[in-house]
Design brief:
Strand content: 35-45%
Cofactor: Fe(2+)
Radius of gyration: 22 Å
Bound molecules: ligand L7D5B6GP, the ligand CC(/C=C/C=O)=C\C=C\C=O, fe (ii) ion
Keywords: Dioxygenase, Iron, Metal-binding, Oxidoreductase, Transit peptide
Family: Belongs to the carotenoid oxygenase family.
Shape: globular
Number of helices: 8
GO molecular function, one term: carotenoid dioxygenase activity
Helix content: 10-25%
Length: 545
């Protein structure tokens, strides 16, 4: 991809904070941050040596940058891969947190690393490769980050820089295009990687992991700079939600497979203010789209002034209220908009319609990984905490939060706990389901859970929402990433298939774990000869043999 450096964020190295200053910023108590909404100083990447000194030198490959830009080769298989498991598992995530002598601060900042494991008749090959976004290419060229990442805001220096920052913000030029969240096969065979900036939508080749180029949206929605990192993609459509920061609200848009044109289904206005709530993901039922509005809201001044808010680009405004909006997918009309108890959810699991005796939808049930209405989870994911606090029980509690949104014009919705959180160790995030149950009543969710004490989810959990129990997989000193369910071809039971997760170990290496989804017992592990950093979300591209 073209690597023309923008003239924005042209801060010389002297604009980067010294490590001491940055440590002071990190140590601000969360309570203090939550109380005060004044913007924090601009944070830029610290020097690598300072980060390493702070990190007490763990070998855990989860938080260690990839050592090489790309690798490809055969993988050793321990155990027996099912003969039906033919296809490619792809996983995306932030695998490079250092560039030149600069180091990122937050897990979400790292440059996107794709991992591939291809299964064919009991054998496996693998690869990893950096995605060549502009953010990555510029950073390599300059020896330091140039664009604004999740927690990282290169400081505009003089007046001209500040003016161009505002212009750059309007055009989106100062924002990252580092697509480190999800990887999704579109219904037409193209494969997209993305994060929350619209410009981060990038096409890749699932075989070679080559970066093909930017996905060019051919529509009039170019002014919408932010998108959900989790579009809902089926064989026929790509459905997503675009936060509107100018007129606080959300556009729900759809794009047919094979097309590059998004069409607006409808718009929901925000009920709280002054800006929309952070919306990393959302949920759908067969008839409806559910748009969450939580009190962790985009900070307009952080974006305009290019400085950090109490939670990077966000501020926690509990008094602004929490809401759930339900839009009809066929008419674009908002059919319910209810106030709910304060919540903090990055990932929605699934949703479905609950019907009354006449078979009519009476309520929408929406499940999410809910952090007890506390944004502290964001600060838990700061890299030096992940690296240093391994034996401390500092992972905030989380649960399967279940919303019930009545469709009878009631003003309020309910939020309950779907099962005893002790079943999954009071940790819970990075979820998946059997995709055949998307938007339908379902029984099983797979996620990362917690074997306490821990500072990060270190377990894989299969949650039975009917029995309200969980089956757990755990290995000492290992960090598994999101468990991804792959159905056995022709399966009729919801849990007939395997669950794949890439596990990073303390020895500095990594393997793809394959569990029998029904029993949750290990059936195989496929070893990489190198370490793999923690990754976020995966997908499966099946192959007919
Ligand atoms: C990886 C993940 O879960 C979330 C990533 C979010 C990102 C990269 C957010 C980026 C943003 C900016 C760089 C500034 C503007 C706002 C926002 C979209 C939050
Ligand atoms: C890894 C994570 C949350 C862990 C909480 O326990 C969130 C990742 C978000 C990106 O997709
Ligand atoms: Fe995500």
């Amino acid at each position: 991809m073209a690597a023309h450096l923008p003239t924005l964020c042209t801060a010389p190295s002297s604009f980067f904070l010294s490590s001491n200053r940055s440590r002071q910023t990190n140590n601000l108590s969360l309570a203090a941050k939550a109380r005060g909404n004044s913007a924090r100083p601009v944070r830029a990447a610290t020097r690598v040596e300072d980060e390493v000194a702070e990190d007490r030198g763990t070998n855990l490959s989860a938080w260690t940058s990839v050592r090489q830009e790309r690798w490809e080769g055969d993988l050793d298989v321990e155990g027996h891969l099912p003969a039906w498991l033919n296809g490619t598992y792809l996983r995306n995530g932030p695998g490079l947190w250092d560039v030149g002598d600069r180091a990122f601060h937050h897990l979400f900042d790292g440059y996107a690393t794709l991992v591939r494991v291809t299964f064919r008749q009991g054998r496996a090959t693998g690869a990893h490769r950096q995605i060549e976004s502009d953010a990555y290419t510029y950073a390599k060229a300059k020896g330091r980050p140039v664009l604004r990442e999740f927690s990282q805001c290169p400081k505009p220096g003089n007046f001209l820089d500040r003016v161009s920052n505002v212009v750059g913000l309007v055009s989106g030029a100062v924002l990252t295009d580092n697509p480190n969240s999800a990887v999704l096969p579109l219904g037409d065979g193209r494969v997209m990687c993305l994060t929350e900036t619209t410009k981060s939508s990038i096409l890749i080749d699932p075989g070679t992991l080559d970066t093909i180029g930017k996905f060019k949206y051919e529509d009039r929605l170019g002014g919408m700079m932010i998108q959900s990192a989790h579009p809902i993609v089926t064989e026929s459509e790509f459905l997503t939600v675009l936060p509107d920061l100018v007129r606080p609200g959300h556009l729900v848009v759809t794009m047919a497979a094979g097309s590059n044109e998004r069409k607006v289904i409808g718009r929901v206005d925000c009920r709280g203010g002054p800006t929309p709530g952070w919306m990393h993901s959302f949920a759908v039922t067969e008839k409806y789209v559910v748009v969450p509005e939580m009190p962790l809201r985009y900070s307009a001044s952080s974006l305009i002034k290019s400085e950090l808010a109490p939670f990077y680009a966000f501020e926690w405004l509990p008094a602004s209220g929490s809401y759930m909006h339900v839009m009809c997918r066929s008419t674009g009309k908002t059919v319910a908009s209810v106030e709910v108890p304060p919540f903090m959810a990055i990932h929605f699991i699934n949703a479905y319609e609950e019907t009354n005796q006449d078979g009519k939808a009476a309520a929408v049930i929406v499940d999410c990984c809910e952090h007890y209405g506390d944004p502290a989870i964001i600060e838990t994911l700061v890299l030096h905490r992940l690296r240093s606090f391994r034996d401390k029980d500092v992972l905030p509690d989380a649960r399967v939060g279940r919303f019930k949104i009545p469709l009878d014009n009631s003003p309020f919705g309910e939020l309950t706990t779907a099962l005893d959180p002790e079943e999954h160790g009071r940790g819970m995030d990075m979820c998946s389901i059997n995709q055949a149950y998307l938007g339908k009543k379902y029984r099983y969710a797979y996620a990362c859970g917690a074997r306490r004490p821990c500072n990060f989810p270190n377990m894989i959990t299969k949650i039975d929402l009917e029995e309200k129990t969980a089956k757990n997989w755990h290995e000492e000193d290992a960090v598994p990433s999101e468990p991804f369910f792959v159905a056995k071809p022709g399966a009729t039971d919801e849990d007939d298939g395997v669950v794949i997760s890439i596990v990073s170990t303390i020895k500095g290496d990594a393997y793809a774990l394959v569990l029998d989804a029904r029993t949750f017992e290990e059936i195989a592990r496929v070893r990489f000869p190198c370490g793999l950093p923690y990754g976020f979300h995966g997908c499966w591209i099946s192959e007919k043999i």
